[in-house]
Amino acid sequence: MNKNELVNNISEKSGLTKKDVELVVNELLDEITEALKKDEKVQFVGFGTFETRERSSRTGRNPQTGETINIPASTVPAFRAGNKLKEAVK
């Protein structure tokens, strides 16, 4: 499912306009992004937690030349599923 399909499904189920639903979805995603930029966790009890993780530097290999390269440390977004979501997907 992509974002447009999500907006359409929520619009049909809630009776809200697609424009209103899209605004809410975009704002939700923006708020999650801003929180992660501040190194804050965003937790939806039962659904899951959005957080950042530190990835240490490591050695990699250029697939075209086979040359070894240094991949620098970075901060990456991560999602950890909650128990209710895990059970629902089983």
TrEMBL record:
Region (Disordered): 52-75
UniProt KW Transcription regulation keyword: no
GO MF, one example: DNA binding
Pfam families, A to Z: Bac_DNA_binding
Keyword annotations: DNA condensation, DNA-binding
Superkingdom per UniProt: Bacteria
Entry annotated with the keyword DNA-binding: yes
InterPro entries referenced in this protein's UniProt entry, alphabetically: Hist_DNA-bd, Histone-like_DNA-bd_CS, IHF-like_DNA-bd_dom_sf
Compositionally skewed regions (Polar residues) per UniProt: 59-73
Entry similarity comment: Belongs to the bacterial histone-like protein family.
Protein name: HU family DNA-binding protein
Organism expressing this protein natively: Scopulibacillus cellulosilyticus
Phylogenetic lineage: Bacteria, Bacillati, Bacillota, Bacilli, Bacillales
